[in-house]
User: Fold this.
Amino acid sequence: MKSITFHSYKGGTGKTTLAANIAVILAQAGHNVALLDMDFTAPSLHTLFGISDNKAYLNDYIDNKAKVSDILINVAPTLGLKSKLLISFSNPNVGVIREQLSKDRKWQMKALSQLLVLKKELESRNIDYLILDSAPGIHYGSVNAIVISDFTILVSKVDNFDFDGIVKIIDDLYKTLDKKTYILFNKVVMPLFQEPNYSNMMQIIDETFKDRSEIIGFIPCYCTVPLGMGSEIFAITQPELPFVQEVKKTTDKIKELAAKIEKE
Amino acid sequence: MIRAVYILQDSGVPIFMKNFDPSLSDPILVSSFITAINSFSHETTGKGVKSIDSHNLILKIADFESILVVTISDNAEDVEDNLLDTIAIKFLSKYATELDDNKDRPKHFDDFSKELDRLIPIGEKEEIINPQEPLDAISLVELPENLRKIALIILEMKEIQINQLAERLNISKSMASKLLKELFDSGKIGKKTKGRQITYFI
Assistant:
């Protein structure tokens, strides 16, 4: 099983949309996939998949209040997917989120321990890809996700806020943890693909990231994506969209990287 | 497994305390609780309390008029029927005079520890040293790479013995022991020792 965390420095980079669409594309291609919502303080995967009647959440498993089978929902039959897509959602209840913010280091250690056990359990259930949609920035939830995954995709917009933040988390966190990290630029505005903007952008990116991380793609900003209002998985509803074609290319690249890392 | 032995004066003051498990509550608090519940039992039933089942721990109590002998263990069968009597007889025969002389100014009979070690075989006792800080993700960042790998294995297994780590990583037992000791010395994992068996835990 290959495990991949989708992380970002700031929110709003499109990390969750990409993680969900990539998970679906992998399941459409015949891979068994598990997708975990690791953003405990701002859960959103349940909205994207339109699930509201959960038996139990990932939070419950971490608290030893639910079994693995209670927290995983196989959405494959409903979405008409070829292979399994097991999703574990984070509890969106405001009271639970508030409680989450006050958790101490001992609880965070227990969370990490439980996630490692869950990873092993998913492996025994023949899951090929484990995708973790983490919280942005440096929080326990995101660091736990990074620790348990084989590599991380840092989703970023092309702007200086994200550039500075990404440099900081690569230098201070990823390098210390010795984790492989790849950068995926998302929501890139169309004029940036035209000269001389393109050359300028590439020069800045090269200077900033060449010794830090590999860039795995540039996904243009498509106005059709926000039209989905955060409750549409385009890989299912509109697979012909250029956005989906770009995400498919990214998925192929991720599969290549996962295979390469597994060999290493 | 026996986790503690207390001897209390009839007034409830502890005069001997041996904790094999440092994670147990303050012995003074436990002594006060036992004395209170024993007095209550005497007043209501005319007899003292013989045992208390509390949070997976069994407290066995024997009342010998001038002293109360208390054992704390995981299971009732960890404490043989005659153990409390034997402890009381040994204690009273050794310190009878001193107990009478110091009735108003209770002292601690710490040297009874050696006597107790003879009564309770080493294999039944467990020494526990808790971690100084949780092994969370931030702790992992602070660890050198070789120990981080070990830490992740312990996090997954919750507790591990030297031979288990050696087997998992296909390394020698001495190397596994060295790595676990290093991680223990960093204060991020705890250690339980029972007889010759060492278990490291988070």
User: Anything to note?
Assistant: Chain A has a mean pLDDT of 91. Chain A is about 50% helix and 15% strand. The interface with chain B takes residues 105-106, 108-109, 112-113, 116-117, 120, 140, 143-144, 146-147, 173, 176-178 of chain A (CB under 8 Å). The two ends of chain A are 14 Å apart (CA to CA).
